[in-house]
Write a structure and sequence with these properties.
29% helix; binds pyridoxal-5'-phosphate; 26% strand; 2 domains; 12 helices; globular; 420 residues; Lyase, Ornithine Decarboxylase, Chain A, domain 1
């Protein structure tokens, strides 16, 4: 038998539990597929971040894109975190979950006028601005609203985060941010704009970063620019270094911890005396979640065995779009093993959770758990093939709460039915 993957999804007497809730028993009650989250896992990560940064004025803004379920957002809000948002929808959810506006930062290369208006009205802590045109538009809209908008410039430090190209965001060729060599000029323009208050500097170099030395490189470049700005008389309030800390996906992964991040960046940030903002998403929630799905059919072909389950790429798209690895285990521990492709029912060859995987030998009706699925799982889900999105459940000790109802066909079709 292999050891437990983490402390939150553990086998007890051969059955998988999330904290003290039997996943098998829960499935019998609520059906499948569903996302299940451990509250303890979330709190443990929050506390690690808080502890790692406790000696320096730091605002930890949870990146909603990782998972924006309102009940989970409340946990982050109740524990004093801020919010990192990238859309009007995320602003709406952040406010609904209770995040105060002065703890909300807003990034994104394509903010619409309506979204900008909404965020100015909410008096958010900072727009993380990604282009000169965006600065102009925010300035204009703020003027019309007779307000001053707080802005930071997202600087692209041209650092390779050594991760998947689709989640590398700080390279010169990427669509994000403003090139570092143009930074000074853009700040000079920004401080002259009447309806803007320039409050900070922002960067985010990528996601699933396993080697924290890349943060050192990025933060050194950003701090360098902060000093250049000071020389020009441009004083900022904070440095925001984004998110990106990697998590365990493979059993052998040893991801960096918030302490590793703090030890790497704080000595550099301290030189400026500016407050720090960080925007972790994945690392706060990935380990807390698993996607539970039931085996519908086993299909044995000459070349391969297929385990066909009742969840698909509409619920968890990471394997399909990034070829991402998620560790997959059976809910009932099995001694006999099989090698199979674990696939969903969707009409796409890319609809898989794992290829050529060794897992416990399963049969029709058995349950499997797809681990490290708390981040970029439910938040990237869709209704492709008119499939209702999975239910979501939060576990706290031996209690559980449904935090998102299962969708049904009427719900999915409602907005279309209203117009026919
Ligand atoms: N901040 C920004 C601007 C981002 O684009 C992202 C993710 O893409 C994050 C924070 C969160 O990153 P992660 O989930 O890797 O911590």
């Amino acid at each position: 038998m292999e050891g437990n993957f983490n402390d939150y999804f553990v086998y007890k007497n051969g059955k998988l539990y999330c904290e003290d809730v039997s996943i098998q028993n829960l499935s019998t009650k609520i059906g499948t597929p569903f996302y299940i989250y451990s509250k303890k896992a979330i709190l443990d990560m929050i506390n690690q971040y808080k502890d790692a940064f406790k000696d320096y004025p730091t605002l930890i803004c949870y990146a909603l894109k990782a998972n924006s379920n309102l009940s989970l957002l409340r946990i982050f809000e109740e524990n004093g975190l801020g919010a990192d948002i990238v859309s009007g929808g995320e602003l709406y959810k952040a406010k609904k979950a209770g995040f105060p506006s002065n703890k909300i930062v807003y990034a994104g290369v394509g903010k619409t006028d309506a979204e900008i208006m909404y965020a100015i009205n909410e008096n958010i802590l900072s727009f993380n601005v990604e282009s000169v045109m965006e600065l102009d538009v925010i300035n204009e809209i703020a003027g019309k609203q007779h307000k001053k908008a707080n802005v930071s410039i997202r600087i692209n430090p041209d650092v390779d985060p050594k991760t998947h190209p689709y989640i590398s965001t700080g390279l010169k060729k990427s669509k994000f941010g403003i090139d570092i060599d143009e930074g000074l000029d853009v700040y000079k323009k920004a401080v002259k704009m009447e309806n803007l208050k320039v409050v900070g500097i922002h960067c985010h170099i990528g996601s699933q970063i396993m080697d924290v030395s890349v943060y050192k490189e990025a933060v050194e470049k950003i701090v360098n620019l902060v000093f250049q700005l000071k020389k020009e008389g441009i004083e900022l309030e904070f440095i925001d270094i984004g998110g990106g800390l990697g998590v365990k996906y493979y059993p052998q992964d040893i991801p960096p911890t918030p302490y590793d991040l703090a030890n790497t960046i704080l000595p550099i940030v301290k030189q400026t005396g500016l407050k720090l903002i960080i925007e972790p998403g994945r690392s706060l929630i990935a380990q807390a979640g698993a996607l539970i799905t039931k085996v519908i059919f086993i299909k044995d072909k000459k070349e391969k065995h297929f385990v066909i389950v009742d969840s698909g790429m509409n619920d968890l798209i990471r394997p399909s779009i990034y070829n991402a690895y998620h560790h997959i285990i059976t809910v009932e521990e099995k001694t006999e093993k099989m090698i199979a492709d674990i696939v969903g029912p969707i009409c796409e060859t890319g609809d898989f959770f794992g290829l050529d995987r060794e897992i416990g030998k399963v049969n029709r009706g058995d349950l499997i758990a797809i681990l490290s699925a708390g981040a970029y799982g439910s938040s990237m889900a869709s209704n492709y093939n008119v499939r209702p999105k999975a239910m979501e459940v939060l576990v706290d000790g031996d209690k559980y709460k449904i935090i998102k109802e299962r969708e049904d066909y009427q719900y999915i079709s409602k907005l279309e039915e209203e117009v026919v």
